Amino acid sequence: MRALIEAFEGIELARIGTSPFVRCVETVAELAAARGIALEVMPELAEGHDLDEVWAFVRSLDERPTLLCGHGPEISDVMRRVAESGARVDGHGLAKGSVWVLERDGGRIVAGSYRPAPSG
Question: Which whole-number Å values give the CA distances from 3 to 28, 94, 106, in the listed order?
Answer without folding.
Answer: 11, 17, 32
